[in-house]
Amino acid sequence: MNNIRIAKNFKLKEFQCPCCKRVMLDSKLLKLLVLLRIMLNRPVYITSGYRCNKENERIKGYKTSYHMLGMAADIKVKDISLIELADIAESFGFKGIGIYKKHLHLDIRPVPYRWVN
Ligand SMILES: [Zn+2]
Ligand SMILES: [Zn+2]
Question: pLDDT digits over 8-20, tens only?
Fold first, then answer.
């Protein structure tokens, strides 16, 4: 299921909820991720895409997480620091940017907000 190529370097299943395999994906989020992937010219790993309410509760995500709207993705990219990656993502138009220990959270909320966890 969801084994559909939605862009040259992304499949829909990379964004699906780990518990129920359902998926929502905002086309603007995908567009920005594709541009980021092209610019970086190396694999962008999606560590978390869409989350249903249950999954978001299980991992203790924010109650209003953009992951539940298909408007957020957590990513990992080899050989680039998360801070550097955050700056690049910002320049591409990602609005919500959270730097975590092992991944970068990106979303397309309307008002820019950046945090370090
Ligand atoms: Zn689920
Ligand atoms: Zn996230």
Answer: 999 999 999 999 9
Report the separation in Å between the CA atom of 60 and the middle of ligand 1, taken as the mean of its atom positions: 13
| The pLDDT of residue 99 | 98
Residue 27 Cα, ligand 1 centroid: separation in angstroms?
20
d(CA 70, CA 50): 5
Distance (Å) from CA 83 to ligand 2 centroid:
15
For residue 110, the CA-to-ligand 1 centroid distance in Å is 25
CB atoms within 10 A of CB 90: 14
CA of 81: how far to CAs of 46, 99, 102, 105, in Å? 16, 10, 10, 13
List, for residues 30-63, the tens digit of each pLDDT value: 999 999 999 999 999 999 999 999 999 999 999 9
- The alpha carbon of 3 and the centre of ligand 2 are apart by a number of angstroms equal to 22
Map residue 81 onto helix, strand or coil.
coil
pTM of the predicted model over 0.90: yes
